[in-house]
Recover the amino acids of this structure.
């Protein structure tokens, strides 16, 4: 584990536990995949209470400089969180996801594994991201997460459908 300068780790956070890796066996059981990698936390990072950052199986889980992570977040193995990104409570980031710099993830955002989020992306509360976000500077909302303006239009139609 490598921890940079001026890092704040709040009570109960866990840095460097095994990631969730299991291989299915022919008999239907699961075999644990050992995680031998590490976690690298840059400078000026703050990690909230009861947040978990898993180590990678072979490489590194990386939290770049200036990142702010709120309480009760889960960052899985091999994730890269770009510099100056902020993440509110109860975010869950699945394995091998890459989040660009200066992103904003509101509360309870869930992101599937093995995708890339463009820099300067904002993801609204309780959104679920299921695919790559390629264009920087966009705002997404909903599950599955879509562009915010499209979400508002869809929500207006959904709300009207329930009125008599």
């Amino acid at each position: 584990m490598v921890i940079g300068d001026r890092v704040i780790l709040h009570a109960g956070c866990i840095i460097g536990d095994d990631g969730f890796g299991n291989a299915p066996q022919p008999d239907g059981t699961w075999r644990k995949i050992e995680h031998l990698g590490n976690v690298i936390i840059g400078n000026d990072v703050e990690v909230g209470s009861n947040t978990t950052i898993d180590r990678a199986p072979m490489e590194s889980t990386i939290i770049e400089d200036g990142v702010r992570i709120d309480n009760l977040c889960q960052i899985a193995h091999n994730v890269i969180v770009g510099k100056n990104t902020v993440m509110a409570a109860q975010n869950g980031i699945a394995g091998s996801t890459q989040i660009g710099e200066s992103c904003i993830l509101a509360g309870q955002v869930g992101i599937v594994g093995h995708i890339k989020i463009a820099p300067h992306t904002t993801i609204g509360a309780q959104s679920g991201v299921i695919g790559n976000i390629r264009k920087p500077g966009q705002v997404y909302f909903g599950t599955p997460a879509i562009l915010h303006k499209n979400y508002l239009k869809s929500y207006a139609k959904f709300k009207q459908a329930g009125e008599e």
Q: What stands out?
A: The mean pLDDT is 96. The chain has one helix and 22 strands. The chain has one domain: 2-161.
